[in-house]
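User: Quick sanity check before I run a bigger batch. Here is a single chain. Can you write out its predicted 3D structure?
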Amino acid sequence: MNKVEELIAATRLSELMNKKEEEDKNCKTLLWVLAIMGAVAGIAAIAYAVYCFFTPDYLEDFEEDFEDDFDDDFFNEDDQV
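Assistant: Done. Predicted structure follows.
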């Protein structure tokens, strides 16, 4: 009987080991998927930052053209403060 019990225990142990290996495989796959998604998001963020850095700011030039006219229209030299 002792050998039969050892055989049953060894069988259960091997089943548990196989089950754990399958779970580890699933975790590794999930880890790889998340790592790839993170890498793609990081590359996209860097590309956007470079794009924003090199794109000229046209609004700044537009505001400078009308800055002098604004002061002249509303404030006369004859007005007292």
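The chain has one domain: 2-74.

User: Great, the batch can go ahead then.
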